[in-house]
Design goal:
Distance between the termini: 18 Å
Largest sheet: none
Strand content: under 5%
Number of strands: 0
Structural class: mainly alpha
Number of helices: 6
Keywords: Membrane, Transmembrane, Transmembrane helix
Shape: elongated
Helix content: over 70%
Amino acid sequence: MTTVLDTTDHRTRQVRRTLWLGFALQLAVAAVPLIDLATFDSITEHVRAAYPDWSAEDVALDRDAITWSLTGIGVLGCVGWLVAVALAKRPNASRITVTALFAIGLMTSLTLLSMGGEGYDLVVPLAHGLLALLPLLAGLAAVVAVWRRR
């Protein structure tokens, strides 16, 4: 026989699993710019394509700004996921928190995908911007899960 408490505990566990998945995806997204910097260095090529006349030092400065901005945004996203996990057992708090953090994440991701400037069509390389959408899938699932929970 299933009791209300069992159902609530099951839903809370389901929400927490979704939030931990989001945290893991966000952590991966935060690490990708640093991995790229150490291996493929596609951000440098992106900057060089936008500003072919720049010196290597100027390209490196812009590359570092983009890389560390993406990493910093990713780390802040991780903090948001951890806050949501901590509040997952409190239905009203988790509904508000998860929904607000999803909205912030969505706006941040859309900004990364649309922000241009001077020589750039997009400041953030498209691949990095699209990758930033991955945690939003878990975020959307979490929003649905917290609002379905009773």
